[in-house]
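Quick one, tokens below. Sequence please?
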């Protein structure tokens, strides 16, 4: 009796091991098709055809068991593309099996196809575990497939008990993976440091050049994709330092050699155009691009700003005669920083030079032990920028302690004629640069009208951790 019991336990253990070794698998044999969002946007409305849907059974099936394939999507499946029968011939040790489509249904955009086992063939010792059912390629409405399509397997016995429940993630497979087709990545960011000691006319080193390297590419290998017709780049940043060599031609005409665009591969790129806020150019195909910026060709009298850079890209694409374009998300492309302190005062009013009702209160506090030269960039109401060097400001220094800037600024504005004529009140924005460590300099800014109305003006000298120019 005990021997029989032990044999029964061994048999159960063997059965359990066999069942655990196999599991339902629709993922391995079904290959995902990668489709780009841009393809779906411009491709003529029609059919997306999947790769073959292949299900490997992981249990023993019997006649009248039911296999269900569940398809995600907004009722995208063309049920007419489902095969009415799938038959696999017996090939010992695997049994033969035939399944037939008995019904389809759609609930909340999800389509279910139910197949009943109609026939089992093969020897008594053969099994359906490991049999692969090939449902062939299926058709889907391309206009309803924008979120991708997946298929999931389930089964029940002829007595409605769950069947073939193993497999985990292998029970589901993407038929169509939908992704954005294009991206821009930065390989080498702009990172020059503007030298305050060199009147901000050079980078530290000294140097005059900096380079940006970035790559536009497809995000994956796509089975269905849009063709690239061109790509337009715009590098955002402060380019107000670029001098115009031809006042009679619209736009800014930079000195030759200031900007050089070099594709790594086969791209052909046009000449760049520049404004105060962007450097723009176009290429015919995706590629790695090097943008060399050299301030030397235009001379050393331009003041280089601290600025951040970003790459904006617009891709033009098509499928056949249908075309469109897309703006990609801006990608950070580095920054030019200062080896000193920079404080921006966004607004400061001044009286015309024949009036005196407005006065300013501008002080620099230096908590360090060294004196630093001061220079100022003044932006007028019309956007014109005037750079005042330390000499223009009378050689004033931010000595340890507190230094009053008010008079030096007024004198420089008057000498430049910025307070002459026009309206009684002049408005300026001031960018105060001190040749000293960023974390020891702070600026106080205020003004009053007729000696009684004191207006404090918030500036950015107090920034958490002084991260503006680390």
């Amino acid at each position: 009796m005990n021997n029989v019991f032990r044999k029964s336990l061994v048999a159960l253990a063997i059965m359990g091991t066999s069942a655990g070794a196999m599991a339902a698998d629709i993922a391995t044999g079904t290959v995902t098709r990668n489709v780009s969002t841009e393809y779906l946007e411009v491709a003529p409305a029609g059919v997306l055809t999947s790769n073959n849907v292949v299900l490997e059974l992981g249990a023993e099936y019997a006649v009248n068991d039911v296999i269900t394939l569940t398809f995600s999507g907004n009722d995208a499946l063309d049920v007419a593309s489902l095969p009415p029968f799938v038959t696999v011939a017996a090939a010992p040790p695997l049994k033969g099996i035939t399944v037939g489509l008995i019904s389809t249904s759609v609930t909340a955009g999800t389509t279910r196809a139910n197949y009943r086992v109609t026939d089992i063939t093969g020897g008594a010792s053969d099994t359906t575990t490991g049999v692969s059912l090939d449902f062939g390629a299926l058709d889907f409405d391309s206009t309803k497939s924008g979120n991708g399509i997946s298929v999931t397997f389930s089964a029940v016995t002829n007595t409605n008990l769950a069947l073939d429940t193993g497999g985990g993630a292998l029970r589901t497979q993407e038929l169509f993976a939908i992704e954005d087709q294009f991206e821009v990545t930065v390989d080498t960011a702009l990172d020059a440091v503007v030298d305050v000691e060199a009147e901000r006319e050079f980078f530290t080193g000294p140097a005059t050049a900096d380079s940006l390297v970035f790559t536009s590419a497809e995000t994956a290998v796509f089975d269905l994709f849009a063709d690239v017709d061109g790509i337009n780049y715009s590098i955002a940043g402060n380019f107000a330092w670029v001098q115009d060599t031809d006042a009679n031609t619209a736009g800014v005409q930079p000195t030759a050699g200031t900007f050089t665009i070099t594709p790594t591969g086969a791209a052909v790129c046009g000449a760049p155009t520049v404004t105060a806020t962007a450097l723009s150019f176009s290429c015919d195909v995706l590629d790695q691009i090097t943008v060399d910026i050299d301030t030397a060709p235009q001379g050393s009298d331009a003041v280089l700003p601290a600025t951040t850079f970003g790459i904006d890209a617009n891709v033009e694409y098509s499928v056949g005669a249908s075309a469109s374009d897309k703006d990609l998300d801006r990608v950070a492309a580095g920054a030019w920083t200062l080896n000193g302190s920079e404080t921006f005062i966004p607004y400061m009013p001044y009286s015309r030079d024949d009036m005196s009702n407005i006065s300013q209160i501008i002080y620099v506090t230096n908590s360090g032990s060294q004196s630093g030269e001061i220079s100022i960039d003044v932006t007028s109401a019309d956007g014109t920028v005037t750079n005042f060097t330390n000499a223009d400001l009378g050689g004033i220094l931010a000595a340890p302690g507190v230094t009053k800037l008010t008079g030096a600024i007024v004198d420089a504005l008057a000498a430049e004629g910025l307070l002459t004529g026009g309206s009684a009140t002049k408005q300026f924005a001031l960018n105060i640069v001190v040749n000293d460590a960023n974390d020891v300099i702070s600026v106080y800014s205020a003004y009053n009208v007729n000696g009684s109305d004191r207006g404090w003006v918030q500036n950015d000298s107090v920034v958490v951790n002084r991260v503006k120019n680390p």
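Helices lie at 2-21, 37-42, 406-415. The chain has three domains: 18-179, 182-338, 341-466.
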